[in-house]
Amino acid sequence: MIRVDDLHMHFGGIKAVDGASIEIARGSITGLIGPNGAGKTTLFNVIAGHYKPTSGTVWLGDEDITGLSPHELFHKGLLRTFQIAHEFSTLTVRENLMMVPDAQPGESLVDVWLRPSKVQAREEEVRAKADEVIEFLEISHVADELAGNLSGGQKKLLELGRTMMVDAKIVFLDEVGAGVNRTLLNTLGDAIIRLNKERGYTFCMIEHDMDFIGRLCDPVIVMAEGKVLAEGSAQEVKANEHVIEAYLGRGLKNKPARSKGGTA
After folding, report:
1. Which intervals hold domain ABC transporter (predicted)?
2. Residue 157 falls within a domain, yes or no?
């Protein structure tokens, strides 16, 4: 579904992404992991149109989408969430969801003045969709709460809900589990799996929680120093010596295991 060919993203002399090539299969939940500074978020930002790459190509199916803006990609069904949720803090959860669909008649003064019934009908459709999303995510108890008052995990659920307000084809999740307690993390994971299995969503997610990655993702792609280091199942990449070295360093990797009676 997404293919990235020999992608480079340089900032001056810094090679944030250095020749990365990946494929994200339609219908998969693909994990993207790696140590800090590996280039994961930069790769996300290039794919999602926030940066134009120094070189390389991004494909959505058979279409070259390299350098298209986030707004253009939104209309093609490619969406991206952020590590820090971007909610409208002074609007309710329901209102945040209703803000997502674009080209609503209520945005036109002409329609507001001359076609109020059209505006009302569309608003009722969007509200019904928002209520469906709220029920799906099991957040009915905060539907009328200001988004700024939500917990970190609830805000991540809201971000996920916003992707459900349009016909998303692929969603890039940037550390969706960061700062989320275990109970809400399980709820998030359940929602992602259901969206994948029941509604055909394709996901690619950056995450540091390997238990969470192992539960949701197959395959898992590992980046280090701007390059793709390994790819496989969660168990395969966790056992890969090159991956262990990238995370822990040569010294820790080669350090002998402590004996039961030994000291640290």
Report:
1. 2-250
2. no
Cα angle value 104/156/152 (rounded, 5°) = 125
The answer to whether residues 219 and 231 touch, using CB atoms and an 8 Å cutoff, is yes
- Give the whole-angstrom CA distance, residue 220 versus residue 202: 14
Its pTM stands at: 0.83
Rounded Cα distance, 148 and 138, in Å: 18
**Non-local CB neighbours of 47 within 8 Å, separated by 6+ positions:** 2, 4, 58, 78, 80, 172
Q: Is the peptide bond before 219 cis (omega within 30 degrees of 0)?
A: yes
Q: Are residues 182 and 226 in the same domain?
A: yes
Q: 90 to each of 82, 95, 139, 149, how far by Cα in Å?
A: 19, 10, 18, 9
Q: Is residue 258 part of a domain?
A: no
Contact 230, 237 (CB under 8 A): yes
- 216 and 231 in one domain? yes
Whether the per-residue pLDDT at 107 is higher than 70: the answer is no
Of 205, 213, 173, residue with least CA distance to 84 = 173
Quick one: 47 and 66 in the same domain? yes
Where residue 43 sits, what CATH number does that domain have? 3.40.50.300
Residue 11 near residue 199, CB atoms below 8 Å: no
pLDDT(130) > 90: yes
Residue 125 lies in a domain: yes
Taking the C-alpha atoms of residue 116 and residue 112, their distance in angstroms, rounded to an integer, is 5
Q: Residues 65-74: pLDDT tens digits?
A: 999 999 899 8
Contact in structure between 161 and 139 (CB atoms under 8 Å): yes
Residue 253 forms part of a structural domain: no
Q: Say if residue 259's pLDDT is above 50.
A: no
Bridge partners of residue 92, in order along the sequence:
146
